[in-house]
Every structure is written in structure tokens, then in C-alpha cells.
Amino acid sequence: xxxxxxxxxxxxxxxxxxxxxxxxxxxxxxxxxxxxxxxxxxxxxxxxxxxxxxxxxxxxxxxxxxxxxxxxxxxxxxxxxxxxxxxxxxxxxxxxxxxxxxxxxxxxxxxxxxxxxxxxxxxxxxxxxxxxxxxxxxxxxxxxxxxxxxxxxxxxxxxxxxxxxxxxxxxxxxxxxxxxxxxxxxxxxxxxxxxxxxxxxxxxxxxxxxxxxxxxxxxxxxxxxxxxxxxxxxxxxxxxxxxxxxxxxxxxxxxxxxxxxxxxxxxxxxxxxxxxxxxxxxxxxxxxxxxxxxxxxxxxxxxxxxxxxxxxxxxxxxxxxxxxxxxxxxxxxxxxxxxxxxxxxxxxxxxxxxxxxxxxxxxxxxxxxxxxxxxxxxxxxxxxxxxxxxxxxxxxxxxxxxxxxxxxxxxxxxxxxxxxxxxxxxxxxxxxxxxxxxxxxxxxxxxxxxxxxx
Length: 454
What we know:
Protein name: FAD-dependent oxidoreductase
Distance between the termini: 61 Å
Number of helices: 8
Helix content: 10-25%
CATH architecture of the largest domain: 3-Layer(bba) Sandwich
Number of strands: 31
Organism: Streptomyces adustus
Keywords: FAD, Flavoprotein, Oxidoreductase
Low-confidence stretches: 414-424, 445-449
CATH topology of the largest domain: FAD/NAD(P)-binding domain
Strand content: 25-35%
Domain FAD/NAD(P)-binding: 9-313
Domain Reductase C-terminal: 336-406
């Protein structure tokens, strides 16, 4: 940026949680130049987690999920406008309208979209939904409020499980079809996947695992689906929860390192070009980014977490305004939460980056526990079920590269390390839900071993 870094032209593509927080942070850091935010949805930035929870339960409407602003970012908002490319040499963002936006610094925060049902004809049947936008949530909530006879949820990841939970809370019959061995298994491993499966069935969910949906049926309106085991599910609403697609197609000709896993960047959120060379003026934040993390072997992490979007936006904004020696890295330990079937599940670290797990507190039987994950003798993650107060302690163990199994005081029973119980994390290719943290570099041993407390 010529002259003072506090003045100039900033463009943010993505009127998202990350985009909004970055715009606010730029102003908080003293940026006084022009700031333009481009977003393809017609709405100002809004919060997505309530869409699969409060909105589906009828406790809130989709149009009340706008994000609160910490301060007015004094931006030129271009909403309902799609970006179609970036010219790195001319330093311009190209818009669908044919207009070009010049920039001195560019932040890409285009996030993800719901993975659609692969058969377009079946996907357009009345009663078939995905859940990502305000419109999606509003339409699905209205359909659930009308009292369908049965809802089919395709995919047992966090979004699919939360939708199924909301349906049961509304008293609706629901079937969940998951290609893998259990719900949530891709994110949390087989042991907690078994607990998730038991909870769903205990709450009356018709859970079908190890099956795929081969066809959606209906004449104009959805009436049911055929499964790979030859069975058929009669239902009048279908929610396709097959994970997310990163919004990178618009960058295909840009020369940036953009692909199905997102846009690769360094730990300072600076985007790589297609040759692996870091750019000085293009930054990435939120779900669309892939970045290396020193606590996890410098693996490229690809996260779909609310907290990561906020933290990364702050780092990106700081580095957009400051020269190299003053730039700071994005080192926040990943964390996320989910509430479903009466359970409060919280995670810190990267559960898939592990070779052993141990139940450090509580038990599967009590449905209240803290499970700690380790890789090559070091703590790398922890997941709590209805035991969230323990999480800060385990975060500290991860940040300090504490030894695994965790030291005395980190668990409420002695370890009998000679009684390992296998707990495989399956290959994501075999799941209909993806992990909320994807390790996109070298993946360590996928075979988790549960060290059973004595």
C-alpha cells in the first residue's frame, strides 16, 4: 500500500462473520481509508449457528439472526453482488456487473455453501432442503411447523444431527441416513460416535448407518427415498446435510492457491499464489482458508468454526495494516460447540490429529465425560460432553504441548495403558459428513486407540 498503511483502499469479498469482524478490526486499528465489502447475499452479515437450532425450533425467525456490530465499520456495502475474479497484477476485484474494484489490500472471506444433492432434478423436488442461508432456514422452519409426517436427514455430521435433534424436540418423526458407522464419527472418532448414535436412538431417531441414499422420489413433491440396502423411507421433507463446499470457483483464473479445500495462506493469513509464493496484498480468513498451525505439525488446517472466523479476521486485519516485522500469526487453538439431544458437546484442538484417546473424566455410561486426544505422546485435542468447565484446562495442555497421556490431576482415575481399545477414525471419503476440522496436509495414523482408564 503506497504511503501510510492506515490510508488507502481495502476491499473485503464476503459479507460474512469473518468479513464483518475484519472490517470492524481495520477501523479499530486506525484505518481511515476507503473500505468496500462485497457480498453475494442481499442481507447484511448474519449469524449461522442459530439457523440449525433456535430458528428450526421456532424460537427465533431467520430474519432476526443479524450479527451485532461492535462499531460502525463505515464501509461501502455492495450486497447482492457477486465477485467473479481477481486480477493480481492490476490489483482489482472483478464484479458480475462488469465493474472493477481497485484495492491496496484484499481480504477474501467467502466462506462455504451447502453441498447440494448431486441429482439436480431430485434436488428441486418440493420438500427437499439444504441448510446454510437465512432463506434455507426460514423455508425449512415453516415446513417443520406445518407438521410433516416424517423428515429424512441425509448426513450425520453436526448440522445433520442438530437438525434431527430439532425435529425430535418438535415431536416430529425423523430418519437419519449416514454412510459412515455412526454420527459425528468423522469429527470426533468412533468412541464418541457410538455415544452419539445411542443418544439419537434413545431420543427416537430412526438412525440408519452404513447406508447411502441412492435416489429421492416424488412427482413434483418429495415423497421418499431409496437406500443402498434396498429399503425405502417414506417422508415428506428431506434435508440434505452432506457438508460444505468452499466458495473458491470465482478464483479459478486468479493465480491464487485456491482449490476444493479452500485458499492456502500462511499463519499470518497472507494468501499463497498457485506456485506456493506468499502474496503481500491478498489475505484470507474464515471457513474458506487453509493455514498451517505449529501446534499440529504445521499441517494445513481447514476449519468450519465460528470462533476461528472471528480470531482469524482480527489477525488478517492487523496484518493488512502492518509491515512484516509487526505482523502476527494466527495461533488460536481451534474450538467449537454443539447442542443436540440434550447434550452439550464442546471441542478444543484437532481431534482427527491424534493416534490415541483416553477418557480422562467421567464415563460413556454416565454420558458426561472429558475425552483427551494425543498424537505421538503429546496432547492435541479434548472433547467434553456436559463437562465444559474442564475445557480451559485441556486447552492449556494443548497450548503447552503437554505429554499424553495427560499428567496426574488431568484425570479422575488411574490409567491402565496396557488395555487399549481400538477406536478408528474413518477415512472422510467413507462418510456422508465431513469433519469440522480437516487436516489437509499429511494425516497421522487414522487408527485411534482408546486407552481405557482403570
